[in-house]
Amino acid sequence: MLLLQADAILRIAEEVNGISWKMLNRELKDLEINELIDRHVLTRAPVAVEYRITDYG
């Protein structure tokens, strides 16, 4: 399970050489569309997004 808050996604984008926040977000969406990960928005303070690898992934 990968739990990411907005600032964590920004930190990942900063750490990965050559990837922008926009590209990272697009890649996560592609993984979700291809059913490799599930995305769940946690409605708590602060709001977080949880990604889980699917059985297919």
Textual characterization of the structure:
The chain contains 2 helices and 3 strands; from the N terminus they run βααββ. The chain has helices at 6-15, 21-33; strands spanning 2-5, 37-42, 48-53. It is α+β, with helices and mostly antiparallel strands. The longest helix is centred in the middle third of the chain and has 13 residues, at 21-33. The mean pLDDT is 80. A 3-stranded antiparallel β-sheet has the order 1-3-2.
Chain-averaged pLDDT: 80
Report the span from N to C terminus: 12 Å
Number of strands: 3
Number of contiguous helices: 2
Enumerate the spans where pLDDT stays under 50 for 5 or more consecutive residues: none
Shape: flat
Structural Rg: 12 Å
Strand content: 25-35%
Strand line-up in the sheet with most strands? 1-3-2
Based on secondary structure, the structural category is alpha+beta
- Major β-sheet profile: 3 strands, antiparallel
Helix content: 40-55%
String of helices and strands: EHHEE
